[in-house]
Amino acid sequence: MLSGIYGLLSASFFVTLDAVDVALTEASVGAGIATLLMLVTVAMTGRYEHTARHKPIGALAVVLVTGGLLLYGILDMPYFGSVDAPAQLHVAPRYINDSMQEIGVINIVTSVLASYRGYDTLGEVVVIFTAGVGVLALLSAVRRPEEDVEIDSVNVSMHEKYLILRVVTKILIPFILLFALYVQFHGDYGPGGGFQAGVIFAAAIILYSMLFGMNTARRVINQPLIRLLSAIGVLVYGSVGIVSMLNGGNFLDYNLLSDDPVAGQHLGILLVELGIGCTVTSVMVIIFFNFAGRTEDHMRTERKSA
Amino acid sequence: MFLGLYNYWIVVVLMMIGFYIVIAHGNLVKKIVGLNIFQTSVFIFYISVSNIDGGTAPILAEGFNRYSNPLPHVLILTAIVVGIATTALGLALAIRIKESYGSIEEEEIQQRDNRGC
Questions:
Q1: What is the ipTM of this complex?
Q2: C-alpha–C-alpha distance, residues B6 and A162, integer Å
């Protein structure tokens, strides 16, 4: 709960600092998925910490010394918001002044993300994909169908109680999905893009599975398909790079995707954002399903032992 | 001087809170929470650096000619999503450790390892 508020607070902080894209991401990640994962983990690992036996004085000393050094370093920083700070003079003017002619996308964040620093973003997508594979390797359990039936009967009786929540969610979910699609494809013109849309999409799916039970959700969302999608997203991204290489340019040089360089950039950014959206959505869903599946197994063994 | 660097003071304080949690607590989940706080302080640092007086969000529009620096925004946007993915991986590891050791306290895990060999 506190971590959700923390996420929302930092999101509103980013809005006041003119970083709307970042705020959108932080709002959906920090206030939604991060909190949820933390709750699931705490439910499984126990709520209370054992009293610490080692003395924290040493740690406090290290922290104070490091903090003091950092504060000393900060005194040399240019003042907050100053126009002639080194950070504002390096590549930023080029992005702000030339991106309209070179990329033709209003949202500079999108053009930097998908085009100028496309290679970097590809790396990030691969990291997300790898984390998804890692969670899958650590937590995925082989499920037997007869156990699912047993949980199903428990779930049905449990979820009958939350009638209002269920009806409201049913009405809400199409709008959340629609909003995610808007964020995905409107990323060129306003705040948005594949990363944000992916997380919002995943949030809708997670909301559904929380209220209707994991097994209903498993029936609606095909797990092997989701795993395939997470790989396809990376593949789409990489393929755009390979195609531009085959057209005689550099890796991820979208100018050559079409006869007109700006149209090529538009096409490239669209495809790349689609790839990002695919991977982020499916990795988030994979992570949530595996965490929640573990919790169910955990509760079942506890019930048996009790 | 205090007001001009206000954001950076906050960043250092948050960062040190996170750092303290990471090194002083033996509980693995708390360590991950500490890392998250540390991470947020870095986000705030980057976004503060990108901010500019009289600037607006970096979406080109008529009537504006001064925008925040878009580059840190891009870096942090991807870092947030990568951060949640890696946090999930860390939490998954904590769950597996809990399952096989019965505890997520660093010292108890160490004791059990020592007894094993």
A1: 0.84
A2: 46
Question: B60 lies in a domain?
Answer: no
Q: State which amino acid sits at residue A48.
A: Y
| Residue B26 is assigned to a structural domain of this protein | yes
Please answer whether residues A277 and A184 qualify as being in contact, where contact means their C-beta atoms are separated by less than 8 angstroms. Answer: yes
Contact at CB, B91 and A66, closer than 8 angstroms = no
Quick one: closest CA in A to B13, which residue? A67
Q: Check CB contact under 8 Å for B89 and A138.
A: yes
- pTM for the structure as a whole: 0.83
Alpha-carbon span A14 to B10, nearest angstrom: 14
**Residues of the domain holding B73:** 6-52+67-116
Question: Which residues from chain A sit within 8 angstroms of residue B98, using beta carbons?
Answer: 44-46
- Looking up residue B106, the CATH number of its domain turns out to be 1.10.287.3510
According to the model, what pLDDT value does residue A17 have?
A: 67
Q: Which of B110, B28, B90, B7 is nearest to A19 (CA)?
A: B7
Residues A180-209 have pLDDT tens digits of: 898 888 877 777 788 888 888 888 888 888
Q: Is residue B16 part of a domain?
A: yes
Q: Is the dihedral of CA A230, A234, A237, A242 positive or negative?
A: negative
CA distance A288 to A131: 12
Cβ under 8 Å to B: A residues 245-274: none
Asked if A190 contacts A107 with a C-beta cutoff of 8 angstroms, the reply is yes
Q: Is B95 part of any domain?
A: yes
Residue with tokens 């003042």: A79
Number of domains in chain B: 1
Task: Quickly state the pLDDT bin for B107 (edges 50, 70, 90).
Answer: confident
What is the model's pLDDT at position A145? Answer: 52
Residues of chain A with pLDDT under 70: 1-4, 6-7, 15-18, 47-55, 141-161, 306
Read off the pLDDT of residues A287-306 as tens digits, 9 standing for 90 and up: 888 888 887 777 777 777 76
Name, in order, each residue with C-beta under 8 angstroms of A234's C-beta and a sequence gap of 6 or more: A125, A126, A129, A275, A279
Radius of gyration over alpha carbons of chain B, in Å? 20
| Placement of tokens 């860390």 in the chain | B90
Q: How far apart are CA A116 and CA B73, in angstroms?
A: 13
